[in-house]
Amino acid sequence: MPRFPRWWFWAAVATPAAITAIGLIIQAPGISRAVSAEAQKAASQGTLVVDGRDVIISGIPVEQAAQVQRAVEAAPGVRAVSVVDPELVPMRMSFTPSTITVTGSTEQEAWRSQFVRALSRQTHGRKLVDETKTQRRTDFPMTTTAAETVVAVLSQQPEAMTVDVRPNKVVVAGTIPDDGRRKAIVALFKRLFGEKTVVDQTKTKE
């Protein structure tokens, strides 16, 4: 005959487990609040949703996503971080001898204004025609640095040119005075966007 009744064994095993589970349930909101506070301090911007120790971030520019994600991952208590990227909508830059027209959209007015201001510093005297707009859950498909470089280079070319940008495709078209400059510009685009991303539709006057 067993020394203790069977019910006693199960009570001895189940009771501590139940107490632990209840303790975790009670602590869970406190853990989420603590993690949320640390994650908010680490992320300089964006909207954070915290589930326990896991964090989902949205509402940040794509070009800053990796930096913000690393900062939140390093915050005390955070276990996993994921980023919800906005839709990268097509944009176009059109160059004429006197103007540069830019179209595209991004989520916040602050992002849009900063992007346009950066481009306006690289126009070499040409008028920047801003046709960008704000639209929820969207962003420009190129970084500010890349866009500045494109404007700085193509605003010095005498002929009309266009640059159409999509997430995985950049089409550069127009006439360039000579083949040496054409090759240099195409090589620059490939360094900026990747060899397989660039579609070269340029030509020379020669």
Keywords:
42% helix, 5 helices, transmembrane, transmembrane helix, BON domain-containing protein, membrane, 206 residues, three-stranded mixed β-sheet
Describe this structure in words.
- The protein has 206 residues and is α/β, with parallel strands linked by helices.
- The chain has five helices and eleven strands.
- Strands 7-6-5-9-10-11 form a six-stranded mixed beta sheet, with helices on one face.
Structural class: alpha/beta
Oligomer category: single chain
Query: Biggest β-sheet: count, sense, barrel?
Result: 6 strands, mixed
Helix content: 40-55%
Order of helices and strands: HEEHEEEEHEEHEEHE
Contiguous low-pLDDT stretches (5 residues minimum) are 7-13, 18-26
Protein name: BON domain-containing protein
Organism: Kibdelosporangium philippinense
Keywords: Membrane, Transmembrane, Transmembrane helix
Transmembrane segments: 7-26
Break the fold down into its secondary structure elements and pairings.
Layout: H1 6-42, E1 47-51, E2 54-58, H2 62-73, E3 80-83, E4 87-88, E5 91-95, E6 99-106, H3 109-120, E7 127-134, E8 138-139, H4 144-154, E9 161-166, E10 169-176, H5 179-193, E11 198-204
Parallel strand pairs: 2-3, 4-8, 6-7, 10-11
Antiparallel strand pairs: 1-2, 5-6, 5-9, 9-10
Brief account:
Keywords: Membrane, Transmembrane, Transmembrane helix. By secondary structure, the protein is of the alpha/beta class.
